Every structure is written in C-alpha cells, then in structure tokens.
Amino acid sequence: MSNRYAIILAAGQGTRMKSKLYKVLHPVCGKPMVQHVIDQVNQLQIEDIVTVIGHGAEKVQEQLGDSCKYALQEQQLGTAHAVMQAESVLAGKSGITLVICGDTPLIKAETMEALIALHEKSQAKATILTAYADQPDGYGRVLRSENGLVEKIVEHKDASVEERYVKEINTGTYCFDNQALFSALKKVSNENVQGEYYLPDVIEILKQAGETVTAFQSSNFDETLGVNDRVALSQAEQILRKRINELHMRNGVTIVDPLTTYIESDVKIGQDSIIYPGTMIKGRSVIGTDCQVGPQSEIINCVIGNGTEIRQSVAQDSQIGNTVKVGPFAHIRPESDIQDSVKIGNFVEIKKSVFGKGSKASHLSYIGDAEVGENVNIGCGSITVNYDGKNKYLTKIEDDVFIGCNSNLVAPVTIAKGAYVAAGSTITKDVPQEALSVARARQVNKEDYVKKLKFNN
Ligand code: UD1
Ligand code: MG
C-alpha cells in the first residue's frame, strides 16, 4: 500500500451561507461539517492530514484540535491555491493524496476507500469522485471525450449552455499522486470567470501531459452533496438524519416516527429502546437497552441506563440510572446524578443534585445543589432554597427521609437519616436522625367567628 495523505479544504468564508459562523463550522446533525469530514478521513490509514484554514482559522483549529496538521491560506484565491498551502508539509513525498472539501460532510469513509482503491488499480495520477445530479447547478461538470474518458472539469460559472446540461458533477473529492499534484498545481492559472485558481484545472493539466486521469462514479448523489447555502444545509441535515435513524433501527432500536426524531451523529442507543415522536437526542448521549424516550423529549449529553422511561421532558449533561421514570414535564439540569429506580415526576426540576436509589420527587418540586440519599420521598411542592442572592448552598437529605408537601429546605441544611419533615415546614436548622420536624405556625380555629363577622355587618 502506498503512503496516504489527505488535504481538507476549509479556508473559505462561505459567503453564500450569509452567516457570522464560518461555513465549515455549521453543524449537520449536531456536528460541524468539517468535523464530519475529519471523522471519516480518520477511519482510513492516513499518515498526514492537513487542513487548510483561513477564514475563522482559530475557530476551526479549536474545533479540530490536534486531530490534524494545519496550513494557513491567508488570502482565499481558490481551491488550487488552497491545496498549494499544504506544500510545506507534503511536497516531495511519494504516495497518494486525498483532497476533500470541508463543506461535503456526508461522504463516507468507505466511499473514500473505494476511490483510493480505483486510483491504485488504474495507476492514475488523478481520480475524481463524481456523481450524477438531477439539478447540477453550481457544481463543476465532468467533461468526457467521445470514448468516455475524463477530459476536464468546467466550473458552472464558466460552462457553456451545452456544458451545463451535463449531469455528471465533480464532488470536490479527488485522489492524486502526491508529486504529480504539486507539480501540476504550479501550472494552474486564474483566467476564468471568478478570477480564482481552480483545483479542478489540475485534471486537464495532467491529462494534457499524457497522464492517466480517471473517475470513480458514486451511485449516490446525496452522499456527495456540497453545502454552499442554508438550503443545502437543511438537505444535508435531512439526509444524515435519515442515515443515522436507519442505523439505529437496524441495530434494534424502534423509532416510531423517523421524520420527527432527531438523533445527533455521536449518540448511542441500546437494543429494544423505543424513541417516540418529537424527540431530540443530542451530543454524546448514551442510552441503554429497553428504554423509552419521548414523545417530545430533549436529551443532551446524558448517559442513561437500561429500562428507563423519559416522557415529555428535558435532560442535560447528567447521568440517569436504570429503571428510572422521568416526566412527564420534568427538567433535569446539568451535573445531576439520578440513580437507579428513581422517580422524577411532573413539573419537577433537578439541578446539580444526586438522587439516590429508589428516591422520589413525584410532583412540582425544585431540587438544586442537593445530595438526596436512598428511598427518600420528597412531597409535592417541596423545594430546596439553595440561593441567597449571592451564593449557592448544599442541602443534604439522608436515606429514608420523608419530606412532607410544600416544605422549604433552607440551605445549608441537613435532614438526617430517617427523619420526617411535616408538610408546610420551612426548615432552617438541621434535623436529627428519625426526628419529626415541624416548622410552621400552629393552626387556630376560632369557633363561630364567621357568624360574628356577618352579624356585625
Ligand atoms: C467546488 C468545486 C466544484 C465542485 C464543488 C463540489 C472548485 C473551483 N470548484 O465548488 O467543481 O463541484 O466544489 O462541492 O474547486 N476553499 C478554500 N480556499 C479557497 C477557496 C475555497 O479553502 O480559496 C475551501 C472552502 O472552504 C470549501 C472548499 O474549499 O470548503 C470548496 O470551496 P467552495 O467555494 O465551496 O467551492 P464550490 O463552489 O462549492
Ligand atoms: Mg462548496
């Protein structure tokens, strides 16, 4: 196998996106486009990956970290000029170089591998990944001679009316002989409608030098979609969403309505879990087996065990154990640790709290900055008073505690093991083990008082 290198083009501004955010950083199914490209390229055995950065260089670098090397393109003079910037890293090396645009997020590693395989088999100096587009507007067109050989690529803006009828498009992904690439690049000019140095011109240059140039025709245009504006962005989102949902379904997850289920790229879901309509599962969420999520739920970066139910609820950056029941209409905020068999019922908000095994907050509670032990029952409407306007304080509720309805637990405070708090109490002092704490005004019944009031009027 020859040495392999890759160049990812990601220096453009993305004018057509009309956005403050640099084009290649726009997310598709929750992950920036250029990250999708890197993640796929990383599945191939590549020695050096060089990402060409320019607009938003720092932000792109921040996103990709040390997963690749970088070359800076200070002025964006075209895709050929962009590839030239990788010269200091790659020139003179022998092997093959894959070039991919950072705005084609859907190309799979297996397609890149097939492109490389054809390139090696045909001993070509360049192999283009092409596809057939029903609406090829905007793409470079692949022009072939009468005997079907690739001759050159013409950009949409430079193409004649006839050439624009050609439906075979350049996907912007190529495999080159590394040395042939860098020597051909020197011959690219910018005499064209856009005044740019076009990478696709390398094809004609190699061809005219008598080199072998070939094309790998993808049968799936969707995979090669280039995202230049927000319409294409939404198409990419739709295509990838379908691909992700199908993958989960094939792995044994039931998705009741894939059209309204939004699962981001890095999410993992176990077998026999059911995802109900209107649900978004985002970030690095991991959901176990036999869970039920949704309808209308949003799960962001949560790790969820097996057999857990989450209905009409939002959970973020938290851990949720096995056989937990959440919702409907619950909100689990970041840094919460909801342990096995817990019940978080309707209109309950949990923030940065541990909830021990088997504990319950079934209705209308706010539990923030709390450590709740095992088998605790938090009555309807009870809250932790964790904030004095300046600082946040901890509430500790030990195992087997029973908090009566509508209690305020003013932190910092500890309710020790097995204690009871009477309904309506405002607890400001620690409650000892197995004590009953009552902290409310005594009830006074004034006999016949109403009658007197009425009589006096
Ligand atoms: C490009 C191809 C076109 C192909 C299409 C596939 C050229 C001239 N045209 O057109 O044949 O059909 O992709 O999607 O190559 N970039 C830089 N530096 C630059 C210019 C661009 O890094 O100076 C990067 C961009 O960030 C982008 C990629 O190169 O990720 C492609 O540039 P873009 O402007 O999107 O080219 P297209 O018009 O889509
Ligand atoms: Mg593009």
How would you summarize the topology of this molecule?
Layout lengths: L3 E7 L16 E2 L2 E2 H9 L6 E6 L3 H8 L4 E4 L6 H6 L2 H4 L5 E6 L7 H13 L4 E7 L8 E4 L5 E5 L13 E10 H8 L15 H8 L4 E6 L11 H21 L3 E2 L5 E3 L4 E2 L4 E2 L3 E4 L3 E2 L4 E2 L4 E3 L2 E2 L4 E2 L3 E3 L2 E2 L4 E2 L4 E2 L4 E2 L4 E4 L2 E3 L2 E2 L4 E4 L2 E3 L1 E3 L4 E2 L4 E3 L9 E3 L4 E2 L4 E3 L2 E3 L4 E2 L4 E2 L8 E2 L11 H8 L1
Parallel strand pairs: 1-4, 1-6, 4-5, 7-11, 12-15, 13-16, 14-17, 15-18, 16-19, 17-20, 18-21, 19-22, 20-23, 21-24, 22-25, 23-26, 24-27, 25-28, 26-29, 27-30, 28-31, 29-32, 30-33, 32-35, 33-36, 34-37, 35-38, 36-39, 37-40, 39-41
Antiparallel strand pairs: 2-3, 6-10, 7-10, 8-9
Helix pairs in contact: 6-7
The protein binds uridine-diphosphate-N-acetylglucosamine and magnesium ion.
Could you walk me through the main structural features you see in this protein, from its secondary elements to its overall organization?
There is one protein chain. By secondary structure, the chain is α/β, with parallel strands linked by helices. The chain has three domains: about 5-225, Spore Coat Polysaccharide Biosynthesis Protein SpsA, Chain A, CATH 3.90.550; about 250-350, UDP N-Acetylglucosamine Acyltransferase, domain 1; about 360-455, UDP N-Acetylglucosamine Acyltransferase, domain 1, CATH 2.160.10.10. About 20% of the residues lie in helices and about 30% in strands. It is built from nine helices and 41 strands. The strands form seven sheets. Strands 12-15-18-21-24-27-30-33-36-39-41 form an eleven-stranded parallel sheet, with helices on one face. The protein has a nine-stranded parallel sheet with strand order 14-17-20-23-26-29-32-35-38, with no helix packed on it. A seven-stranded mixed sheet has the order 5-4-1-6-10-7-11. A hairpin with a 5-residue loop joins strand 8 (about 140-145) and strand 9 (about 150-155). It is elongated. The chain starts with a strand and ends with a helix. Bound molecules: uridine-diphosphate-N-acetylglucosamine and magnesium ion. Uridine-diphosphate-N-acetylglucosamine binds next to strand 1, helix 3 and strand 10.
